[in-house]
Amino acid sequence: MTNKEIVLQFYDEVFNGWDLSHLDRYMKESYIQHNPNAESGRQGFVKFAEGFLALKPHMDIVHIAADGDMVFVFFKCTLANGAINKVCDIYRLEDGMLAEHWDVIEHNVNDVVPLHGNGLF
């Protein structure tokens, strides 16, 4: 399985399936987190994800690319309350598992009117 395929399966099962039960299959115990609102380590991710998954997110992946051990995922994240976030997640994989994570997030873009006709996604 390629790094992109691993990340796509992770999104499908964990984020869109709201299921943390197989996280040990995707994420190293020593997972390094760069999001300031989440702790490092697999348990840090679980702590963050339990609250996040309660919002019933759905990720629509727009683009995914890989460069060596890095995978870049650009997606639309729609929450059950109707809020839409524009997100780019960056992962470093090691031995077929998520080892490190960075993200860039624009919150609540559903009310944004672009100054151009290019759309947000």
Describe this entry's structure for a reader.
The chain contains three helices and five strands; from the N terminus they run ααβαββββ. The chain is of the alpha+beta class and 121 residues long. Strands 1-5-4-3-2 form a five-stranded mixed beta sheet. A hairpin with a 5-residue loop joins β3 and β4 (84-94). The radius of gyration is 14 Å and the shape is globular.
Uncertain residue segments? none
Order of helix and strand elements from N to C terminus: HHEHEEEE
| Strand residue content | 35-45%
Would you count the extended β strands for me?
5
Count of alpha/pi helices: 3
Helix amount, in percent?
Answer: 10-25%
Output the structural class.
Answer: alpha+beta
Radius of gyration: 14 Å
Feature tags:
39% strand; globular; 5 strands; 121 residues; 5-stranded mixed beta sheet; 3 helices; single chain; 24% helix; alpha+beta
Provide the fold topology:
Layout: H1 3-15, H2 23-26, E1 27-33, H3 42-53, E2 58-67, E3 70-78, E4 84-94, E5 97-106
Parallel strand pairs: 1-5
Antiparallel strand pairs: 2-3, 3-4, 4-5
Question: What's this model, at a glance?
Answer:
This protein has 121 residues and is an alpha+beta fold. Helix content is 24%, strand content 39%.
